[in-house]
From TrEMBL:
Keyword vocabulary terms for this entry: Isomerase, Magnesium, Metal-binding, Phosphoprotein
Family named by the database record: Belongs to the phosphohexose mutase family.
Name of the protein in its database record: Phosphoacetylglucosamine mutase
Cofactor comment text: Binds 1 Mg(2+) ion per subunit.
Length: 562
C-alpha cells in the first residue's frame, strides 16, 4: 500500500503549485480574515481551504465553514474567512498558522508547514476522520474563481470534502455550520423558515393588535447592491405584518456593490445612500452591508438635504436591551432581587467605537457593560460569558446570544407556565424571549434577522422611529485614517482605549483630550486596512474635528509618513 504521507505531500504540492504566491505578496489574517484585491486572492484562498480542512480534522470531522467575501469593501476586493464548528469565527489560536501558511514562499515550504503543524496539533493526515468544509460566497465577480481555489485547497487534504452551499449572506453560512454541528436542520430553506416563523411568532405576541399605523409597517431596505438585498427579495412576501421595499437590491443593473450605498457608507458618511430621495422622507429605512452582517437604520428628514438621522449599532443594541429587560422584569418581577423565577446574567459588550452617550445610557439602566477590542471575534467571545449576552459594534454588527443552559431553563419555565398560567404576562414574556432566541442569529451578527427583531420590537413597543432616536442623543464623533510607515508599531491596551507604544503618544492624546468638554479620543492600527484609525468624540462637531485632526498629526509625526 502507498505511504499516506507520500500521497498527502503530493496533493499539497500540487494544489500549492496551481496558485503560487506572487513576489512581494503578504497576507495577514486580520480583524475578519484575509482581504485584498480580488484577482490577487487565489493563493490565500487556496491556503485558507487547507487550513479549514485541517481545522475540521482537528475537531474530529465536525463541519467548518469558509466564506468568500470582502463585506463592505469595494466590489473589486475580495476576502476569505473561516467559520469554526460552533458557527463563530475561527479560533484565534489558529491565526498565526493561517498567516504562516498564506505567506509560505514556495509549495515545498507550505508542505513542511502543514506537516509540522499537523504533528504539533496531533492531527492525523491521510487517515483519521474525514473533514467537511461548507463553502459560500457573496456576489462579487471574483467569487466563483476564488471558490475554485478554496475547493482545490480543501481537496489537497486527503479525506476532506468541500460542500458548496452557493451564494449566501455571511451570517447564513455561519448559521448553517452551527446548525449542522448541532444536528439541527441546516439548509437555506430551514434558515428562512426559522427566521420567518419566529418573526411571525413575535408579532403574534405583540400585546394587543391595534398597531394599525400603516407608515409604521412600511420599511425601505438598502441592500448595498449585494446578497442581502437578493435574499430579502426572496423572503419578503413571507413576512406578514411588514411591507418591505428593497432598493439597491443586488438585481442586475441596479448598481454597484457597496458603491455609495450600504451600511458602512451610511454609518460613516451619515448621508443617504444612492437610490434614495425625497420620496422616502420620514419612512423608516434600514441598510445592510455587502455580505449582510451589518445593519443600521436611518431616516431622511428633508427634501433638499442629503443628511440623515442615523440609528447605528449602539442604538439597535439599546433597543434590544430595553426589550429583553422588559421581558425579564415581567418574568421575575421588577423589584424582586431575590428568589427570581429566572435568574439571568445579562451582559452588554461594546468596543471603544461605541458612542459615549450609548454607554452612559446602558450604565444608567444598571447594566454591566464590558469592553473588548474591535472585531466580532472579541465581542462574541465575551458575550458568550453571559446567560444573555448582547453585543454590537457601532457600525451595526452584533447579535444577542442565549446560552444553552439558559435556554433549557427558559424552556422548562415556559412549559410550566403554559400549564399553570397560560396567557399570563409572565408566560407571554417567556415565549417572547424564546422566539427572540430563535429569530436572532446565534452564530454571528446578521442584518436580516437583526432587522426583523428590530421591527418586532418597534411593533411591540408601538414606537415610531422618532421614539427610538430619542432614547439618547449621540455625542458628535469623528473618524480619521492616517497612513504611516508601520501601523503595527502602535500597541494598545485597555480594550484599545489607550496606547502603550510608542511611548509618549498616549500622553499627547491625553493633553489634547483635556481641552474638550466630553472629550474622548483613541488611536489603533486597523486590522483590515493599512492605516491607523483615529476616533474622537466631544460635545460639538467642530471640537471633534479639531481633536481628531490634532491627534492624527501627532500620530503622523511620531510614526512617520509611509
Ligand atoms: C472602526 C471600524 O468600523 N472597524 C471595523 C473594521 O475593522 P478595523 O480593524 O478597524 O479595520 O472592519 C471589521 C471587519 O468588518 C469590523 O469588525 C470593525 O468594526
Ligand atoms: Mg460585512
Amino acid at each position: 500500500m502507498a505511504d499516506p504521507g507520500v500521497e498527502q505531500r503530493a496533493a499539497l504540492l500540487a494544489a500549492a503549485s496551481v496558485f503560487p504566491l506572487p513576489d512581494g505578496a503578504r497576507f495577514s489574517y486580520g480583524t475578519a480574515g484575509f482581504r485584498a484585491e480580488g484577482s490577487t486572492m487565489a493563493p490565500a484562498v487556496c491556503r485558507a481551504g487547507i487550513v479549514a480542512a485541517l481545522r475540521s480534522l482537528k475537531l474530529g470531522g465536525a463541519s467548518v465553514g469558509l466564506v468568500i467575501t470582502a463585506s463592505h469593501n469595494p466590489v473589486g476586493d475580495n476576502g476569505v474567512k473561516i467559520v469554526d464548528a460552533d458557527g463563530g469565527m475561527m479560533s484565534q489560536a489558529w491565526e498565526p498558522f493561517s498567516d504562516a501558511l498564506a505567506n509560505a514562499p514556495s509549495p515545498e515550504a507550505l508542505v513542511e508547514l502543514v506537516l509540522q503543524f499537523a504533528k504539533d496539533e496531533g492531527i492525523t493526515l491521510g487517515g483519521g476522520p474525514s473533514a467537511q468544509v461548507l463553502l459560500a460566497r457573496d456576489t462579487r465577480p471574483t467569487g466563483e474563481y476564488l471558490l475554485d481555489a478554496a475547493v482545490k485547497g480543501i481537496n489537497a487534504i486527503i479525506g476532506a470534502t468541500a460542500l458548496d452551499m452557493g451564494i449566501l449572506t455571511t451570517p447564513q453560512l455561519h448559521w448553517m455550520v452551527r446548525s449542522k454541528n448541532k444536528s439541527l436542520k441546516a439548509s437555506e430553506e430551514d434558515y428562512f423558515t426559522q427566521v420567518t416563523e419566529s418573526f411571525r411568532h413575535l408579532l403574534e405576541l405583540v400585546p394587543d393588535d391595534k398597531y394599525g399605523d400603516e407608515l409604521n409597517k412600511k420599511l425601505i431596505v438598502d441592500g448595498a447592491n449585494g446578497i442581502g438585498g437578493l435574499k430579502l427579495e426572496e423572503i419578503k412576501t413571507k413576512l406578514t405584518g411588514l411591507h418591505i421595499h428593497v432598493k439597491n437590491s443586488g438585481k442586475e443593473g441596479e448598481g454597484i456593490l457597496n458603491e455609495s450605498c450600504g451600511a458602512d457608507f451610511v454609518q460613516k458618511e451619515k448621508v443617504l445612500p444612492l437610490g434614495f430621495g425625497p420620496e422616502d422622507i420620514d419612512v423608516r429605512c434600514a441598510s445592510f452591508d455587502g455580505d449582510a452582517d451589518r445593519l443600521v437604520y436611518f431616516r431622511i428628514t428633508s427634501p433638499g438635504n442629503t443628511t440623515i438621522d442615523l440609528v447605528d449599532g449602539d442604538k439597535i443594541l439599546s433597543l434590544f436591551v430595553l426589550f429583553i429587560r422588559e421581558q425579564l422584569d415581567a418574568i421575575n418581577g421588577k423589584d424582586n432581587q431575590e428568589n427570581k423565577v429566572l435568574p439571568t446574567r445579562f451582559g452588554v459588550v461594546q468596543t471603544a467605537y461605541a458612542n459615549g452617550a450609548s454607554t452612559e445610557f446602558l450604565k444608567n439602566l444598571g447594566l454591566e457593560v464590558a469592553f473588548t477590542s474591535t472585531g466580532v471575534k472579541y465581542l462574541h467571545k465575551k458575550a458568550l460569558e453571559y446567560d444573555i449576552g448582547i453585543y454590537f459594534e457601532a457600525n451595526g454588527h452584533g447579535t444577542v446570544l442565549f446560552s444553552d443552559e439558559f435556554i433549557s431553563r427558559l424552556e422548562s419555565l415556559t412549559t410550566k407556565l403554559s400549564s399553570i398560567a397560560t396567557g399570563s404576562a409572565q408566560h407571554q414574556a417567556a415565549l417572547r424571549l424564546l422566539a427572540t432566541s430563535q429569530l436572532i442569529n446565534q452564530a454571528v451578527g446578521d442584518a436580516l434577522s437583526g432587522m426583523l427583531l428590530v421591527e418586532a420590537v418597534l411593533q411591540h413597543k408601538r414606537w415610531s422611529f422618532q421614539n427610538w432616536c430619542d432614547l439618547y442623543t449621540d455625542l458628535p464623533s469623528k473618524q480619521l485614517k492616517v497612513k504611516v510607515k508601520d501601523r503595527t508599531s502602535i500597541v494598545t491596551t485597555d480594550a484599545e482605549r489607550r496606547v502603550c507604544q510608542p511611548s509618549g503618544l498616549q500622553e499627547l492624546i491625553d493633553t489634547e483630550v483635556a481641552n474638550y468638554c466630553h472629550g474622548r479620543c483613541f488611536v489603533r492600527p486597523s486590522g483590515t486596512e493599512d492605516v491607523v484609525r483615529v476616533y474622537a468624540e466631544a460635545s460639538t462637531m467642530e471640537a471633534c474635528d479639531i481633536l481628531a485632526k490634532s491627534v492624527a498629526q501627532h500620530v503622523e509625526r511620531i510614526l512617520g509618513y509611509p
